[in-house]
Amino acid sequence: MDDQTRVEWRDWGQDAFDEAAEADAPVLLSLTATWCDHCHEMDAETYAEPRIAANINDSFVPVRVDVDRHPRVRDRYNMGGFPSTVFLAPDGTVLTGAGYLGPDGMRQVLDSVRTMWQTKGSGAGRVPRPLREDNPPAGRLTSDVESAMLGQLTEAYDEVAGGWGGSPKFPLPDALEFALKRDREMALRSFDAVSANLLDEYDGGFYRFAAERDWAGLQHEKLLDSNGALVRAFANAYLLTGKDEYREPAERTVDYLTTTLWNDEADAFANSQAPGEDDAHTIDATDRAAADEPPVDEGVFAGPNGLAIEGLLTYHAYTDDERARRYAERALETLRNDLLEDGVAVHALEGDVERDADGEVTPLLANQARVLAALTTTASVLETDALADATAVADATIDRLRDGESFLDGPASGAGLLERPLRPLDTNVALADALLELAVLTGEERYREVARETLETFAGASDRFGVQMARYATAVSRLLEGPLVIRVAADPGTDLHRAALRMADHEKVVVPAADDLKAGLARVERGDQRSDTAETPAELSERVQSVLE
C-alpha cells in the first residue's frame, strides 16, 4: 500500500502515541484498505510528494492502519470512508479529520493542524460522540419496530432506480431480506436493480457500491463480506420466487468466491479484490480477457469467512449445489481448526494473534457474531456436531464481551481511543439474531433471553434507525412472534430434511436430528402452535401452510 510514499509510517500501537507525547507533536493517522482505489491514489499523489512527506515526517508522528486488519481502530476513527486522514492528540483524541486529500488540500490541513496544536495543544482534542455516549436508550420491544422499519424502507425507496436512498447507492442485503417478507414487490425491484447494476457480468461477484443515485459511478472493489451476504440474500429471493433471475446472480457469485477469492494455500476465502491500476472492470470483454487480473488481498479473516460460509450453505440448502457445499466445508474446517480457540475467533489467519494479559485470544464482537451465524447455519444444513462449537462461541462472547445487557466490540483496552467502550448496533443485532437461532437449535432458553435483553438495550432509539439497520427489525420480529421452526427427526441430507430447508420462509429455523419426535417424522412450530407430524415432503408442505395461515 505505502511503497510509493515518502512518509515514515509507524505501526499502530502505544509506542507511536508515546513518541508523539515525548515530541509534543500530533499523530497523523492514515486509515487505508488494500482494495481502496482512492487510498492508492492518495499515496501516489499526496504522500509521495517530497515536501509534503518531509513536512509530515518533521512535525507529526505518522501512523498507517489497514482497516481490515484493525477494525476497532477503523470504527473509532473512520471519517466516513477510506482513505480517512485523522489528526490526533497524543492521548488519542481527535483534533480534526478528512477523507481523501490531494496535495493542495493536504498542505492547507497540515498548516491548520500545526497552528491549532501550537495554540491549543491537546485541549483541542475531542472524543467522537459514539464513544462519549456509552449507554444507548433502552425500551420495550413491540410490533411497532417492524412497522416503523417498513415505513422507513417505503419512504426511502427509489421508485425510479430501485433500491433505497440517494447517493451513494449500496446493495443493503439486510434490507433486501427484510423487505422480501413484508413488501415483496419493493424487494424484488430492488434485487433487480442490485443485480443489473452491481453484478460483474464478466467475472461474477458484486461491486461494493455505486456513487450516484441512478447506480452510475461504480466502485469496482469487491469485498468478501458483502458478497457473502449477497449470496445469502439472492438465494433467499430464489427460495421465495423460484425464479432463475435470482438464483443466477447467487450462482455467479459463488463461482467468483470459489475461484478469484479462494486462497488455496489457506483453504479459505481471501478478503477482497481491488479495482486494479487501470480499472480492468471498465474495459470491454475482449480487452478484459487480456488485461492483468486486479490484485487480491489474500488475507483470511474470521468474520468475512463466516459470512461467506453462511451464504454458500444457504445457497446449497435450496439448490443442492455441490460446489457451494464443498467450498463452504473447506473454509469451515479452516475456521474451526485454525481460527477458533476456546470459543474465540482469531481475527486473522496471518500475523501475530492478539492476546490479553492472561494469554487468551482477544475477542472481537463482529467476528464472534459472524462465526456463530456460520455455525448455526452449518448445524441446520449440514451437521449437528457444529452446535458444540456454536455453543462455545456464544458462551465465550457472553462471558468476555457482555457489559450490562449489551455487548462491547472488544475489550476496552489498547492504544488511543481503544480504551473507550463501543457498543456497535449492527454487530449487537447480528449476535442477537444468531443467538435466537442457537436457542431454537439447542433448546437453551438462556440464549433467547440474552438476545431479548440485547435488542431491548437499543429499543429506545429504534424509531430513528435507518434502512441500514433493517436486521434489527427482523430480529425483533423473530423474537416477538417466534420464528417458524421445522423440527425433523432425520439426519441432514435426507429428503425430509432437504424439503424442510426449502419451505418458503427464509427466516425459519430447521432443526435436524430432533430427538423429541419419532424417527422419520417432522413437525412445524411457531410460538404456541404445533402442527400434526408429517412423514413426507408433501405432508410437511401442508403442515407449514396450516401454521402460516
UniProtKB/TrEMBL annotation:
Domain Thioredoxin positions: 1-115
Gene Ontology process terms (BP): carbohydrate metabolic process
Basic and acidic residues composition bias: residue spans: 524-533
One Pfam family from the record: Thioredox_DsbH
Annotated segments matching region Disordered: 120-141, 524-549
PROSITE patterns: THIOREDOXIN_2
PANTHER family cross-referenced by the UniProt entry: SPERMATOGENESIS-ASSOCIATED PROTEIN 20
Record's protein name: Thioredoxin domain-containing protein
Organism: Haloterrigena salina JCM 13891
